[in-house]
Fold this sequence. Notes:
With 197 residues, the protein is mainly α. It is 77% helix and 4% strand. It has helices spanning 8-63, 67-161, and strands at 164-167, 172-175. Strands 1-2 form a two-stranded antiparallel sheet. The protein is rod-shaped and about 145 Å long. The chain starts with 7 loop residues before the first helix and ends in a 22-residue tail after the last strand. The mean pLDDT is 81.
Amino acid sequence: MNPPAVNEHDLDALVARTALLMAQFQRMQADLEQQQSQAIASLEQLSRILPVQLRSSADAALGAVGREGAAMVQGALQQPLKAYETQLAQSATRLADSAQTLAGSIDQQRRVARSVAWKSVASAVAAVSLVLGGGAWLGTRYRADLERDRIQAELMRAYNQADVVLCGKPQRLCANVDSKGPAYGEGRRYRPVRPRP
């Protein structure tokens, strides 16, 4: 059974796509963090500035009126000012809650993006491992085939150089044996064959 063909171009494309995905994720994450920081800073500044400005404006307006007029105006404005401060505090609370919800959404998006990034990296690692494992398996298999072919080639070279012929009925392999040559094998019963003249 032949192993599946490995396409290095597809592996390179997968790695390039993974790198592009990671870069897009990092840019998106940086933009979201910057937007969240700006929104929170604006909300905090607004919640500090509005009550102070409102009181200073009211104090400046009341300073021009006489004491009695100021007391009447201040008494008349006291209740609407308190109602406005209450509404402002409630709005600040709602804005803070919205900022917390936004922060939660950003954290959830980060977790999802991290999960996608890890899955992409794991897929790339698995693909590279598969390619390397397949290459090692093919290398081992072809190395054994090459060694077997080398031995067969040496045997054929020795057959071609030996002085052997078919002889007799039924035909058998006959050799011109060097009877004075060294003996080999089990029981030292084998002698070298003389080369062809």
